[in-house]
Design a protein that fits this description.
This protein is an alpha+beta fold. The protein is built from 26 helices and 30 strands.
Length: 941
């Protein structure tokens, strides 16, 4: 048979020592027909052990399962080696990524930054609070294997235990580069070591693949468990026990599946099955193209990922330097996946639920490609155009691998194959492109936190729409130009000739209605089968042109005719169509034809319609993108925020109050004037809009402002309650509060009706009692003073309130207490001295209302001619007592009295007048009332 003499590619097969020989079929002619090993050339030497085992089995009357009867020892150890190689390849991929990352750190370092290991230790210590040494042997022997386990989408966990309490944290970052290294290694080993091996049935193929997957998963599980990093870190007088592990429930099943599929793909070329199986033909017949549906998806992602990955890598080196660029093997694959999702107009969602351990809010926010204003407009447009180009490439590939023939056109489910696959891909992306983490701890209380970043839940619906678009392009647009593409491009999109040939055999078998026949293993052996109606009417295909007439044969019915196709189209005539086999070089030419080729005019008309429809779709996409970009840029909330910050920076407080209504009374806005705020020192000198988060009709613009050399983050709440044409009109949400506005409270003394702020007069309500006034102000320094209407009263110098953006909400309070000027003491002294002078001019021994006098003892007639003179004026001090002042004598003054005294005691004698004098001290105290520039002194002598 051809399957015995040739491999699936049609090359001559030479028997080797590892070739297997099946048991001789003695029970029925059908068994002999089905068993290729029963028709070997007599010159071929068979394995003696196999013959001995076969004879023993025949002698015992027991026949092993068909999948095991053809397997030798090589069929077992080859997949084992492939599984081991897969795990080793994964670890090697991690080691390569680590070495490149360390190299990037080394290139970025300087002479003062210490060694790369020291900087890495510092980073780990700052993140975990633990004193670590990554140069230790335990780290070197543990970390690569734990990171390799992350390729199975399990979290890397840090577990701490201390004094009976514990805490743990974990992060999940899929390591797809390492996983790809493992898959490639397992595939190459399985393909290379199975060169001279025959895989007789699909059962053998999948059994070997299962052995490889089990080996890979079991080895990874064992090594990961053995290499868990265990440390005892000193902590005060005790130790903290630390464990770093990636053991998880998903480790074994994920790697089992990866190893199974990798080795199964490698052994597919070694299969000697002569024709498609029952399941394969049945699936192709009911859902045309389902066996080839992954190729257009792979082409689309390959086209997009190659260009986008190169762009992200360049961006990483430019923006992040050597550490970011050389560590790309850790983050680039998942970053390309995220960008692919975003470029297909879906979104990423970031969410988490947290308590006191982190600052996560528990919300879930959606991020689009054009969100936050972080991606330039040109980059957004390029990403979407790249997504469109990759979708066109997928449509061309789909048109090649599943030609639109009569069978496809008449099968309704053919429309759903690609869209449903894209839908399932979107669901799978929710798992494959998820980065998450958690933290929980009993050492710091019952705190816990969770975060995640993954494609949005509606990504599957977006992918479904793209699948429909690609299906429409493949059916109605691509056929008009697919044959005008360069041959190399076409060959790269549609795949190798061998894969196309095998797909053609499956499609041909499905069109002939031979699912049951193929499944029985009789296709291609000359069994009579009546073709299905669509196969009878088939003509040559444009994708697979016919080079020879359809072959028919007349053969006698075999004893196994009942096993042949017995569907509604089965017949018993002599003229039958022979189902194709993989080894038949003419099988690819016996394809069911497409519909009658279109004439040039029809092609031209369809091409024109396709161009118009494509142009309209492109315009619709561009219009949507332009609308979204304009909505978030020109008409976005950040414009209002930037206008507000620009006004504050320029000192234009009145315009800032128009943009962001402070929602206070007019009296409280007295300092929101251009004169007052423009004269303020240390205003906001610069600002930068960081990002914008939009949630329906509400948004938050995150910015940073620089004031007095300090940069502070601020979040400006925005709301949209109207529209400017088609676009939302945004304004600052004064109800939510504007963080730039703060309060300044001034205690105004009694009787004061004017304040001096930054050199500008500000009127206040003059009251008889002290009272407080609260003002709303913008960030800056405010020099506030209280003016006085009297030269005798002062409220001190200006007080400066430093209002800073982002400062606590408690308002600074300025308090002004009255005090008296030196002029009060001077004028009080002058008035008191003037009173003394007035009293000194008196000709009375006891002047009225004067602080001095002379008491006469005896007869008043014996005293005459009093003359007062001030020998020394007293000195006074004035002090405040509430709103009044008091004065006291610091040093007494001295007054002299000159008078005449009658020394003659006898009234009958003439008077004997003599001159006498006396001195006395002068002092006093009292109160002083001030009214403007007038003084009222109330002395108490």
């Amino acid at each position: 048979m051809p399957s015995s003499a040739h491999d699936p590619a049609g090359e001559a097969r030479e028997p080797g020592p590892d070739d297997t020989e099946e048991l001789s079929a003695t029970t029925s002619p059908g068994a002999a027909r089905h068993d290729p090993g029963a028709q070997h050339d007599p010159g071929v030497q068979h394995d003696a052990g196999v013959q001995h085992d076969a004879a023993a089995v025949r002698g015992s009357g027991h026949r092993p399962p068909a999948a095991l009867s053809t397997m030798t020892a090589r069929h077992w150890w080859v997949p084992v080696l492939a599984g081991v190689g897969g795990y080793v390849g994964t670890v090697v991929g991690i080691v390569i990524a680590l070495v490149l990352s360390i190299l990037g750190l080394a290139l970025q370092g300087d002479s003062d930054g210490g060694s790369t290991t020291d900087r890495l230790n510092d980073e780990i210590s700052s993140a975990t609070g633990l004193d670590t040494d990554t140069s230790g042997l335990r780290w070197i022997l543990s970390v690569p294997f734990q990171l390799a386990a992350m390729a199975a989408l399990v979290p890397l966990r840090l577990i701490l235990s201390f004094g009976g309490e514990g805490a743990s944290a974990g992060i999940t970052v899929p390591q797809y580069f390492a996983l790809a290294c493992g898959v490639l290694t397992a595939w190459l080993i399985a393909r290379k070591l199975s060169t001279r091996m025959r895989v007789e049935t699909r059962g053998v193929q999948w059994l070997m693949a299962a052995v490889s997957g089990l080996t890979w998963a079991a080895l990874a599980l064992i090594v990961t468990a053995l290499t868990v990093l265990r440390l005892d870190v000193p902590f005060f007088a005790s130790d903290i026990r630390v464990r770093l592990t990636a053991l998880g429930g998903g480790l074994f099943p994920v790697l089992l599946l990866v190893g199974l599929l990798s080795v199964a793909a490698a052994l597919n070329v070694r299969s000697t099955q002569v024709s498609p199986g029952r399941i394969v033909v049945g699936a192709e017949r009911s859902t045309p193209g389902v066996l080839q549906v992954l190729r257009p998806i792979a082409v689309q992602f390959a086209v997009f990922g190659t260009v986008a990955g190169l762009g992200l890598l360049i961006y990483a080196f430019v923006e992040g330097g050597a550490p970011a660029g050389f560590s790309a093997l850790f983050w680039l694959p998942i970053a390309v996946g995220w960008l692919f999702v975003l470029s297909l107009l879906s979104a990423l969602t970031a969410g988490g639920a947290a308590t006191s351990l982190t600052g996560l809010t528990g919300r879930s926010d959606a991020f689009y490609l054009w969100s936050e204003g972080t991606v330039p407009v040109w980059a957004v447009v390029l990403c979407i155009l790249l997504a469109l180009v990759s979708a066109v490439c997928a449509a061309i590939t789909w048109a090649h691998v599943r030609p639109l023939d009569e069978r496809v056109a008449r099968t309704p489910l053919a429309w759903a194959v690609l869209p449903v696959t894209y839908f399932l891909l979107g669901l799978l992306a929710l798992w494959l492109l998820r980065v998450g983490g958690y933290a929980s701890g009993g050492m710091v209380g019952s705190s816990n936190a969770v975060f995640s970043l993954r494609p949005a839940g509606w990504t599957c619906l977006v992918f479904l729409v793209w699948g429909v678009i690609i299906e429409l392009l493949a059916r109605f647009v691509v056929p008009a130009f697919m044959h005008t593409l360069p041959r190399r491009v076409t060959r790269g999109l549609r795949g190798s000739e061998r894969s196309r040939g095998r797909a053609a055999v499956v499609a041909s078998a499905a069109a002939l209605g031979g699912a049951g026949l193929a499944g029985a293993g009789l296709a291609g052996t000359g069994t009579r089968v009546t073709p299905a109606p669509e196969a009878t009417a088939a003509t040559s295909s444009a994708q697979y042109p016919s080079t020879e007439p359809v072959t028919t044969a007349t053969q006698d019915a075999t004893p196994y005719a009942p096993s042949a196709y017995s569907g509604p189209h089965a017949g018993s005539g002599d003229e039958t169509r022979v189902l194709p086999s993989y080894d038949d070089p003419g099988a690819t030419t016996r394809m069911p034809a497409q519909r009658t080729p279109m004439d040039p005019a029809t092609k031209k008309r369809i091409r024109l319609i396709a161009i118009i429809v494509g142009a309209l779709l492109l315009l619709a996409v561009l219009a949507t993108v332009v609308f979204s970009v304009l909505s978030r840029t020109v008409f976005g909330p950040d414009n209002q925020a930037e206008d507000l910050l620009r006004s504050v920076t320029d000192g234009n407080a009145s315009h800032a109050a128009e943009i962001a209504n402070p929602n206070v009374s007019s009296g409280q806005r007295a300092l929101l004037t251009d004169d007052v705020y423009g004269a303020a020192q240390n205003r906001i000198s610069s600002y930068e809009i960081k990002d914008t988060t939009i949630d329906g009709d509400r948004a938050t613009v995150n910015a940073t402002v620089t004031q007095d050399g300090v940069t502070t983050p601020v979040a400006l709440p925005m709301v949209s309650d109207s529209r400017d044409g088609l676009f939302k009109s945004w304004r600052v949400d004064e109800i939510a509060g504007v963080p730039l506005y703060q309060a300044l409270t001034v205690e105004v003394p009694a009787g004061v009706g004017e304040l001096d702020v930054n050199g500008k007069k500000v009127s206040v309500d003059a009251q008889g009692q002290p009272h407080t006034v609260e003002y709303t102000v913008l960030p800056g320094d405010y020099a506030v003073g209280v003016g006085s209407s009297s030269k005798y009263v002062t409220y001190g110098g200006d007080q400066v309130a430093e209002i800073r953006a982002g400062s606590p909400s408690s308002a600074p309070v300025m308090s002004f207490q009255p005090s008296f000027t030196p002029a009060l003491e001077e004028d009080v002294t002058k008035q008191l001295n003037a009173t003394l002078d007035r009293c000194a001019r008196s000709t009375e021994f006891e002047p009225e209302g004067c602080p001095f006098g002379y008491s006469i003892y005896g007869d008043d007639e014996d005293y005459r001619n009093p003359r007062w003179s001030i020998q020394r004026y007293p000195t006074y001090s004035v002090s405040s007592y509430g709103s009044q002042a008091t004065f006291t004598t610091d040093r007494s003054g001295e007054v002299r009295l000159d008078y005449q005294y009658n020394e003659e005691y006898d009234d009958d004698e003439p008077a004997d007048w003599t001159d006498r004098d006396t001195t006395s001290s002068v002092s006093g105290y009292g109160t002083v009332s001030v009214s403007g520039d007038e003084l009222t002194i109330n002395a108490n002598d």
